[in-house]
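sry for the spam today, last one i promise. struct tokens for design, 403 residues
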């Protein structure tokens, strides 16, 4: 009889122990219902409820896209457009989605054309400093673009901001609404949309080109630089709109260090994804197979390594993103980022532009060989393929350099 009375007590104790161990395990691993453990759910209501920290509780099916090339540059093209503008013909500038002018350029250029990029995360700040480096001494400035993104209830009309060398007054720029594009917001606030903008900031670039540049006035409901996520007993900042994401500076230059035949192809997004995603960009004119190196830059929003401890604790099942550059005609493929054989095992989407805080913006460039890899089959397109495990991400711009 005593044994029968003890059985319910033993069962209750066992269940309490199991619940406690599960809770401890979740704390040790940093996993909760809004991160990796929730990815298996397919409940649409749960998906909508959990989109509040940049992650999705389900991993999406593969998505694909195809975009135009929004700007093509090589030395011949830049010189042609410069002479055209200097003669008073601005039709090429007016027809382009990318508002860049070459009227200021002295012809001929000193060499081929190349690019550098750098960025800053602006969540809960609305601004920051972009540290641009890597332009060879003696280079001639071809042009500069500032591209930025935000999650907002409505597009800015127009968008006015300040940009220039750090510790100066900067210059005011005003761009038309939806100057770059829009896409689904990356899992923060379902009442918002992700908008990206682009401005021609060539006249703000200092002699020598390299330097520190400050952007101010991006739309942000919070500007005290707090963490986007909770930290221990301190709650997170919330997701009141607008949510500023980040900004990147793209600089095109000409140098005698760069082969005359070098090419640059620029494609603008934005596109949101939280599962496998690929996009094909046409390359017209065709890729020059006589050049040995490819240089690819990716700019985008909402990269992170996790949500625990103010976003500083990595969750590998979430942050294991990978990137491939591929030839759609020959099926050739090179993994350039992430584990599993990539040229660089780091992720494209870890919020590097905001380390250590605030995260949520990435600007990355990789150089690899060779041009003949993408020139195969005619060289008329290339594909960027991403793998995400539920981290909601927006690619904003892709830049392919062939040199």
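last one done:
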């Amino acid at each position: 009889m005593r044994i029968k009375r003890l059985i319910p007590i033993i069962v209750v104790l066992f269940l309490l122990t199991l619940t406690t161990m599960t809770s401890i395990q979740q704390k040790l691993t940093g996993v909760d219902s809004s991160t990796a453990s929730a990815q298996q759910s397919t409940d649409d209501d749960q998906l909508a409820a959990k989109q509040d920290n940049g992650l999705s509780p389900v991993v999406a099916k593969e998505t694909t896209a195809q975009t135009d090339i929004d700007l093509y540059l090589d030395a011949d093209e830049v010189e042609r457009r410069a002479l055209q503008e200097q003669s008073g013909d601005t039709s090429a500038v007016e027809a382009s989605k990318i508002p860049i002018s070459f009227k200021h350029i002295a012809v001929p250029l000193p060499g081929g054309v190349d690019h550098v990029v750098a960025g800053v995360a602006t969540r809960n700040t609305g601004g920051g400093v972009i540290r641009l480096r890597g332009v060879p001494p003696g280079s001639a400035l071809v042009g500069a673009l500032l591209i930025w993104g935000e999650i907002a209830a409505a597009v800015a009309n127009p968008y006015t901001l300040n940009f220039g060398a750090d510790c100066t007054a900067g210059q005011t720029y005003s761009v038309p609404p939806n100057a770059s594009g829009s896409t689904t917001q990356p899992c923060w606030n379902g009442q918002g949309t992700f908008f990206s903008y682009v401005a021609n900031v060539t006249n703000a670039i200092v002699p020598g080109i390299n330097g520190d540049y400050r952007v101010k006035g991006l739309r942000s409901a919070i500007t005290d630089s707090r963490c986007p996520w909770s930290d221990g007993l301190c709650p997170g900042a919330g997701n009141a709109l607008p949510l500023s994401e980040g900004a990147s500076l793209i600089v095109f230059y000409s140098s005698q260090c760069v082969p005359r035949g070098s090419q640059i192809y620029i494609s603008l997004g934005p596109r949101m994804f939280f599962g496998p995603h690929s996009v094909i960009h046409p390359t017209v004119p065709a890729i020059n197979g006589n050049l040995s190196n490819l240089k690819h830059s990716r700019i985008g929003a909402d990269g992170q390594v996790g949500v625990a401890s103010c976003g500083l604790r990595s969750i590998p099942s979430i942050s294991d993103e990978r990137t491939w550059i591929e030839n759609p005609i020959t099926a050739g493929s090179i993994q350039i980022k992430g584990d599993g054989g990539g040229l660089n095992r780091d992720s494209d989407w870890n919020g590097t532009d905001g380390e250590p805080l605030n995260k949520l913006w990435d600007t990355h460039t990789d150089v690899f060989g060779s041009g003949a890899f993408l020139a195969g089959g005619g060289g008329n397109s290339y594909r960027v393929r991403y793998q995400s495990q539920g981290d909601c991400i927006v690619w904003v711009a892709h830049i392919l350099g062939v040199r």
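The chain is about 15% helix and 35% strand. ok im logging off now
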